[in-house]
Amino acid sequence: MTVRASLFPTFFLSGFECSTFHWKRQGRRDLVAETQHDRFVAQDYRLLRDLGIAVVREGVPWPLVDRGGEFDFGRLDPYIDALNACQLLPIWDLCHYGYPDDLDPFQPEFKERFARYCRAVAEYVTPRVRGPHFFTPINEITFFSFCGGEWGWVAPYGESRETRFALRLALCEAAIAGVHAIREVDPDARMVNVDPLVYIVPPADRPDLAEEARDETFRDTFVAWDVLAGKEHPEFGGSLDVLDIVGVNCYSFGQMEYREHGPHQALGPRDERIVPLGDLLWEVWERYKRPIIISETSGLGDGRPAWLCDVMEESLAAVSRGIDLHGVCLFPGVDMPNWHEGEWLHNGIHDLVPDGNELKRVPFGPYVDELRRWQKLLNRVTTLDADPFSDPVDLQDVKAAADRMKLHADRDWS
Fold first, then answer.
1. How far apart (Å, rounded) are the C-alpha atoms in residues 350 and 37?
2. The domain 12-405: what is its CATH number?
3. Distance (Å, rounded) from C-alpha 171 to C-alpha 189?
């Protein structure tokens, strides 16, 4: 008998890179097409099912389905068919760095149209896919604000801190409106609000930047979640129910040395200034006391298995302390290109190998083996049965495993 049921049918999740940004003033990009996930969606979902993963982060490409406020969701049908065939539960990502060309995020129409779009998506997918239904209204509001507001990588191509702050608030206001619109369709819909988990330190030779680094770690990082939770700008309509499930993205480059201009510098794996991931997860839990998932995590190349081991040990150490962790998303399910140079990152469960005009999906064996090891340690299935929804994860099993292993957070992010 299940003692404490999870929100999800499996503890391990996955997902697919689905960015649709307007990139460096060069035009619209579609990472789903670049990875050929659009061509191989049925195969990609079967690969996840064979790995015992029943939850997938999947994107709805807002700029590609919205024509001046008229919506055509026909391109979602192959994904919906494949989800139903494989009995996977989607977390629909509704804005992954991209918005329609005719919109300006700093104008009121942006929020209004985003809300109409969110309502239309919910009306389309909820009757077609088995519930419960999960949505991420706007992915990584904080990082999106840096990319589009301060670094000038993506539209709207801002290049100042003030523009970043303004973009962040505009995205928060739109996301809150989107949540309310979705729940007009499905009052029980759950939200997964995703942002990176970061820790910033000053350069060793610039102690004068310590306050700026601390501010980015302990205030700036949390502003978007705080607005969604109604802690800041309550006039936007945020609340803890709007924030709902906190999705934290955990990567090694999330611990950085502060730079006054441009992206910060990632710390090396044995830098003495690194803080334990488990402590950062506890910081999130103490701030919101909401269900948490690690919504993206992955190592690179041959480091993928060791990274998964580190993340799991740190996560379980935090579970033993009392955080309410519902899952870990191995992201992406198939490889993705570096946005800037285009080379494959080798961060997926499966690498992509050119084979004529196709990208062949090749599992990275050591990463899969490490996943299998953790599934067994947590008493989780390694292969899905006929109905993955019938037997939810018992989080008491996860807690028992964490307590049994007597793990403690440490600084080793290798």
1. 12
2. 3.20.20.80
3. 20
